[in-house]
């Protein structure tokens, strides 16, 4: 258990080191991602029919462009390659629909599992954690992405589960701050946006780092 915790710590430390080396590019992508999510919130608030599911789908369809770019860029950084922005746009265009389809399927599987006493949701969320990444990193399509993810996690379930808990904690921080107000001003929302600019690229870097570690094993 202690060894697994140390390994997870090293993954996040390495992700942070690489993040600092490509700070301007990754934070730019993080800023674009955050602006897209905020724009989705504004549009959603003006719709006649509002539901959390609809908002999530709106954000997913639009933010997927940046998510794909982040995964590809993170992978290039880990491999020590120069970032070709023209190639980034080509990758985003070519992988978009497959990525969105896999992401929605992942969500459905995890949420369905959570509804059945939580444990199945945590299990599926862990073994399929790489499904969307594999669309970009290994050109997997739908079922292949889920099978490959399960293969990568096999024998390392605890390590990947602990990684998922840490990333959930990172995401909880800005979400928890979103409700803070000061003199009627929603300062929490401002802090939330600022944190997301940093956190989303950092989590992506860490997840890609975990993928390469699992791949080597």
Defining key terms:
217 residues, 9 helices, mainly alpha
Record the SSE blueprint.
Elements: H1 2-21, H2 23-45, H3 52-78, H4 85-115, H5 119-127, H6 131-137, H7 143-153, H8 157-177, H9 187-216
Task: Describe the protein in words.
With 217 residues, the chain is an all-alpha fold. The protein has one domain. Helix content is 82%, strand content 0%. The chain contains nine helices and no strands. The longest helix has 31 residues. It is globular, with a radius of gyration of 17 Å. The model has no long low-confidence stretch (mean pLDDT 84).
Tell me the domain tally: 1
| Strand composition percent | under 5%
Query: Number of helical segments?
Result: 9
Which parts are unreliable, with pLDDT below 50 for 5 consecutive residues or more? none
What profile does the largest beta sheet have? none
Radius of gyration: 17 Å
Order of helices and strands: HHHHHHHHH
Helical percentage: over 70%
Q: Report the count of strand segments.
A: 0
> Which word captures the global form?
globular
The overall pLDDT, averaged over residues, is: 84
Query: How far is it from the N-terminal to the C-terminal residue, by CA?
Result: 18 Å
**Overall SS class:** mainly alpha
Brief write-up:
By secondary structure, this protein is an all-alpha fold. It has one domain (20-216). 82% of the residues lie in helices and 0% in strands.
